[in-house]
Amino acid sequence: MENESKNLVRKIIHIDMDAFYASVEQRDFPEYRGKPLVVGGSPEGRGGVVATASYEARKFGIHSAMTSKKAQQLCPYAIFVRPRFAAYKEVSQKIREIFSRYTDLIEPLSLDEAYLDVTLDKLNIGSAIAIAEQIKQAIKDELNLTASAGVSINKFAAKIASDMNKPDGLTFIGPSRLEKFMEQLPVEKFFGVGKVTAEKMKRQGLHTGADLKELSQQRLVQLFGKTGKFFYNIVRGIDNRAVQPHQETKSISAEDTFSYDLDKGEELNDWLIQIAKSAFKRVQHYEIYGRTLTLKVKFEDFKIITRSTSFTSPVTELNQVLETAQKLLDHLDLGGKKIRLLGVSFSNFSETKPRTRYDYHQPTLFPPTKI
């Protein structure tokens, strides 16, 4: 069967739950239904950031990673609730059980989205579109939630497709129209293209996939580094990345974006302690200890830098974590800039087990509590 699968065109499904955290809250608490609901943060005090907003809240322009203060300005009567990660993980496991009825090739990207390779599905259905329809219906019938699905011959196209008709959508991008679709795609939609890269592309006169296609691979690499090779292939509909059921853990981290930019001082130190504790708690939970600790800093101008310290043996004590993180921050030259985000991560693990990626990074969401 392995040799047979190599000769087949891949059938990839990307499933993305619709406003997942908010939808679970509205399902479990009828009083939230039909109302603008914000999960994460609080309009009081420092507030934190939005984890997910219901579709009713999104109509006001509220979105993930927005400060709760800004969210309340956009919709003064929005309802703010704390996230219940235990509940979301439980639902996520049930979604995963539905996926596993059709294939074992499942690559979770987070609690609410995953790739599925159904080239050779367990039930011999054969049609990826039919499988996606059945999965969506099972999620609706069994969990009272909706999901959107994208179906194509590679991961990139399937992920793009799943976002095209939200909520409760299903979009198929077949091989015959894949390359044309990529030519028409705005550069902002391409993997690896953030705000800064998109602006750089537009300064070069690159607005769509068709514009990227005009450049040679060598020129794209000159302009965008290693990602240039990916751009060269993907605009031609080529993405050979396989669905990976297990991923080796490379880092465990926690980070948070502040509701306003901070200078060095007691308040920033409080945040650092909270974030470092959150990261170390995850390390302890998974019982894999790293020898390298990294501090991530995003400045008010959105520039990101990292500073790391490595040890000869794994870091297993919280005091060592806090002392190291504090030293990295103390030795940081701000150059007159303020800080809008801090993150702490562990890597260079001495003993690593296969884990799915969503286990390892979640925003801390809430400001530190002083004891």
From TrEMBL:
E.C. number, please? 2.7.7.7
The molecular function terms in GO held by this entry are: DNA-directed DNA polymerase activity
Q: Where in the cell is it found?
A: Cytoplasm
How many cofactor units bind, and how? Answer: Binds 2 magnesium ions per subunit.
* Entry cofactors: Mg(2+)
At the top of the EC hierarchy, this enzyme's class is transferase
Which sites bind Mg(2+)?
D16, D112
Q: What is its main location?
A: cytoplasm
Asked if the keyword Isomerase belongs to this entry, the reply reads: no
Report the protein's function: Poorly processive, error-prone DNA polymerase involved in untargeted mutagenesis. Copies undamaged DNA at stalled replication forks, which arise in vivo from mismatched or misaligned primer ends. These misaligned primers can be extended by PolIV. Exhibits no 3'-5' exonuclease (proofreading) activity. May be involved in translesional synthesis, in conjunction with the beta clamp from PolIII.
Recorded protein name is DNA polymerase IV
User: What organism does the UniProt record list as the source?
Assistant: Pedobacter boryungensis
Name of encoding gene: dinB
